[in-house]
């Protein structure tokens, strides 16, 4: 008889909570959705889901299937790989996504409006923000 390695304990969302990968992917969905200015309802409509299901995906409480992730990527105009950016090889989150200033609502909103400014003025706005940031030091 072959010696087999012991089976890994199956993960339970109820007991163990959402998988860190699911949380990360959901947070990346939320980040991209807010960057393009879509509500959960609008994204849900584009991919054939309710806003409640989109909400569960974004929290990581429901796992996103490969085919659904492909549809979400199409609706948000990004490659599927976008949702796995910033993850290490060990499939654990590198920095906690919730502490990332780029995922804060005001940061996302600022970035969205910044890109609406005519390109010729963006450099001036950036220089102004840098100068204001240095004054806080």
Q: Which range does the strand content fall in?
A: under 5%
- How many helical stretches? 7
Count up the domains: 2
Order of helices and strands, N to C? HHHHHHH
Number of beta-strand segments: 0
The N- to C-terminal Cα distance equals 68 Å
CATH superfamily of the largest domain: lambda repressor-like DNA-binding domains
CATH architecture of the largest domain: Orthogonal Bundle
Would you give an account of this structure?
By secondary structure, the protein is mostly helical. It folds into 2 domains: 15-96, Orthogonal Bundle (434 Repressor (Amino-terminal Domain)); 104-137. 55% of the residues lie in helices and 0% in strands. The chain starts with 12 loop residues before the first helix and ends with a helix.
What's the short story on this structure?
The chain is mostly helical. 55% of the residues lie in helices and 0% in strands.
List keywords for this structure.
137 residues; mainly alpha; 434 Repressor (Amino-terminal Domain); 2 domains; 7 helices
List the SSEs and their pairings.
Elements: H1 13-16, H2 20-35, H3 40-47, H4 51-59, H5 66-76, H6 105-114, H7 119-135
């Amino acid at each position: 008889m072959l010696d087999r390695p012991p089976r890994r304990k199956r993960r339970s969302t109820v007991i163990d909570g959402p998988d860190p990968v699911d949380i990360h992917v959901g947070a990346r969905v939320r980040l991209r959705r807010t960057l393009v200015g879509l509500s959960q309802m609008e994204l849900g409509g584009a991919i054939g889901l309710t806003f409640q299901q989109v909400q569960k995906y974004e929290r990581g409480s429901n796992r996103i299937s490969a085919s659904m992730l492909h549809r979400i990527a199409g609706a948000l105009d990004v490659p599927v790989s976008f949702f796995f950016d910033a993850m290490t090889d060990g499939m654990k989150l590198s920095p906690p996504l919730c502490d990332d200033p780029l995922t804060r609502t005001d940061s996302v909103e600022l970035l969205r409006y910044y890109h609406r400014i005519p390109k010729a003025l963006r450099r001036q706005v950036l220089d102004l923000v840098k100068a204001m940031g240095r004054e806080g030091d």
